[in-house]
Amino acid sequence: MKKLFLYFFFTVVPLLVYGQKTTYKEVDNRFYYPENAQNVTDYQRKMAILDIYYPETEKKVPVIIWFHGGGLTGGDKEIPEVLKNNEYVVVGVQYRLAPKVKAEVSVADATAAVAWVFKNIQQYNGDPDAIFVSGHSAGGYLALMTVMDKSRLKAYDIDANKVAGLIPFSGHTITHFTIRKQQGIPGTQPVIDEWAPLYYVRGDAPPTLLITGDREMEMLGRYEENAYFYRMMKVAGQKDITQYEMQGYGHSMTYPAFPLLLNFVKEKVQKAAQ
What we know:
The structure is a single chain. This protein is an alpha/beta fold. The protein has a single domain, classed as Rossmann fold, CATH 3.40.50. It contains eight helices and eight strands, in the order H-E-H-E-E-E-H-E-H-H-E-H-E-H-E-H. Strands 1-2-4-3-5-6-7-8 form an eight-stranded mixed β-sheet, sandwiched between helices. Strand 7, helix 7 and strand 8 form a beta-alpha-beta unit. Helix 3 crosses helix 4. It is globular, with a radius of gyration of 20 Å. The N terminus is likely disordered.
């Protein structure tokens, strides 16, 4: 009987403990503006929401904020399947869209969402010191704008340089074409103004991974503007920035790019722990 007990204690119990898979929960449609915010419209309350996918764990884990694409005129919040089950918190953000609002409002919403994550993600086992900001196309542009223009998060008493990493997928680094369209500027005329991430190049920005599709298959100039952003960031003194061109893939290059995002997060988390 004693031998049976010892066998159970030293063999079966460890298998039960270590063999258990991490379980995950999802919380949907959290409003990310302060509840006491002034002049909140019905459309804002409908669209300024996010979903949180998080592991049930005792430790704090890295966080990936994901902004969907859609030209700032369409698209829906999402938790990409490939980002699930990696022991990360994943936050999918919805934001207001043109033409119901000026496209610039999307940037304000994205900033408010990032600020909400910084201030609340510990409730969902997220590590506020390991928040990574990412997104595809218009979402990549929003990721860049929220972090590169430090004044935006500063309005929420958050230092943008606390972001652990910035990973835009095929994001505009010039002024977004929807904003240019609002101003009567054609899509073939590039503009770099306060609505362009390139306007805010700086050497002290968080570690950055730029990913685009093949330059011959991407949207108009998307690879080239990211390449210029990369070069100017290097000139400004940024040492931790990398650019990938997904050869053979066009603008819809998220599937082959997701492993690069996951590897980037893993690498930066391991480096921070050293």
